[in-house]
Amino acid sequence: MQQNNRAQFATRLGVVAVTVGSAVGLGNIWRFPYEAGVNGGGAFLLLNLFFVFVIGVPVMCAEFVIGRHTGSNVRSAFRRLAPGSAWSLVGYIGITASILILSFYSVVAGWTMEYIYRSLTDFCGIRSATALHDRFDTFASSNWRPVMWTLLFLLCNYAILARGVEKGIEKVSNILMPLLFIILIAFCINSLFMPDAGKGLSFLFRPDFSQLTPKSVLSAMGQAFFSLSLGLGCLITYASYFSRRTPLMKTAFLTASLDSFVAIMAGVIIFPAVFTYGKEPAAGPKLVFEVLPAIFAEMPLGALWSTLFFLLLFLASLTSTISMSEISIACMCDDLGMKRRNATRLNIGIAMAFGTLCALSFGCLGGVRVFGMTLFNLFDYVSSNVLLPLGGMLISIFAGWRLNHAVLKGELDATSRGGRIFLRILIFCMRYVAPPCILIVFLAGIGVL
Ligand code: TRP
């Protein structure tokens, strides 16, 4: 069913690099530590891993199968497989949510740019928790700087996206992902030698289930979806650029493992420092931005490390945001016949408008609350805890129940005996575990059950 003239990722390494590039980003290094901090540490990590492997991997395979089989963007993939049905709504959920995520994500990516700039020009080596807190707050609540960085970040996206799939996305990911891994490992080792490393590690690895609420279970699931880039058809779009030879199950498993590994490394870097420098683990979205500078201040050549770290975080965010934008750009180009450049302009333009609102929600729009949340928190909550799980549930129901079974098995193509057993388990999870589990966690988390 694949279209022949569609762009394809050039190499096997490229496929893994772009998929991991999409998955690894602020979700792992910024969002995971702060969510784990708010939701009690070890128990959150354990639940998150459960959701990643029992629900995330099957949903990821479902996205891969739908994408590669149809060779289409998220909207027309469902239209082709189930013409005239309401399934194409999944595509629209994906497009809407991807723009919401892109908006608040760009604000945080903008923060990383501010920190790169500061590391280069004005690295002051502050260690005190209150001083770091004040410094971040003064910046985030000012009205023009965060907005400027958000817009600049979106312009960087534009520059890469307008160049197209192989030239832009694949090249950037191939180089950056390995580099990010190496530097994270170096920082983990550094954190393990901090005075209160033990406390930090036991916060992260010793589960205390008494702290868990239905809401934190929902957050752990939302985090799994967010971090794996699932539920919006982002991976449907990417898989439409995969070649027939890409092994889907292996790629899914590898992506989920590497992604979780990066999140755990981020935890190992952050929590020893949180306890050593007397910070509150439940500080929320600012956690990482207040704790990391204290780590750098202690290190020899701190300014250099700081620059390098925030630079890589910025670049990892870029490889994630281009995957978000690609969802709607692919739809506009394939279905509306728009030129890639114009589609990119429209996508980035909308994100700039919403991104500005999110950036200002730490400053002059801080008083604007919807359901008690600022715009930034609202966009994050609605997309991660509502739209992604909803999209993920529908995608796994579609692949498990509606899609022709022979197509599903053919695309997942298990050659070895172990592979066939794994395939059975995977399809079982796709059909019987993921949909009800997502529904129950979602309803309990929003307080309906
Ligand atoms: N997974 C990315 C991260 O952890 C964010 C991301 C990229 C994403 N593409 C997505 C989240 C699509 C949801 C859907 O930073």
Give a brief description.
Helix content is 77%, strand content 0%. By secondary structure, it is mostly helical.
Explain what you see:
By secondary structure, the protein is mainly alpha-helical. Helices cover 77% and strands 0% of the residues. The protein has 18 helices and no strands. Helix 2 runs antiparallel to helix 10 and helix 3 crosses helix 10. The radius of gyration is 21 Å and the shape is globular. The model has no long low-confidence stretch (mean pLDDT 90). The site of tryptophan has 16 residues, from helix 1, helix 2, helix 10 and helix 14.
Question: What are the key terms here?
Answer:
449 residues, mainly alpha, 18 helices, globular, binds tryptophan
Largest sheet: none
The overall average pLDDT, rounded, is: 90
Helix segment count? 18
What structural category arises from helix and sheet content? mainly alpha
Distance linking N and C termini:
42 Å
In N-to-C order, the SSE pattern is: HHHHHHHHHHHHHHHHHH
Strand count:
0
Q: Beta-strand percentage?
A: under 5%
Bound molecules: tryptophan
- The Cα radius of gyration reads 21 Å
As a percent range, the share of helical residues equals: over 70%
| Shape category | globular
Which regions have little confidence, pLDDT < 50, spanning 5+ residues? none
Secondary-structure map with pairings?
Blueprint: H1 12-23, H2 26-38, H3 42-70, H4 74-81, H5 89-121, H6 129-140, H7 145-161, H8 165-192, H9 197-205, H10 214-228, H11 234-239, H12 248-276, H13 287-298, H14 302-336, H15 340-360, H16 375-402, H17 405-412, H18 417-445
Helix pairs in contact: 1-8, 1-12, 1-14, 2-10, 2-12, 3-9, 3-10, 3-12, 3-16, 3-17, 3-18, 4-5, 5-7, 5-14, 5-15, 5-16, 6-13, 7-14, 7-15, 8-12, 8-14, 9-12, 10-16, 10-18, 13-14, 14-15, 16-18
The protein binds tryptophan.
Tryptophan (TRP) binds at residues 22-23, 25-28, 101, 226-227, 229, 232, 234, 320, 323-324, 388.
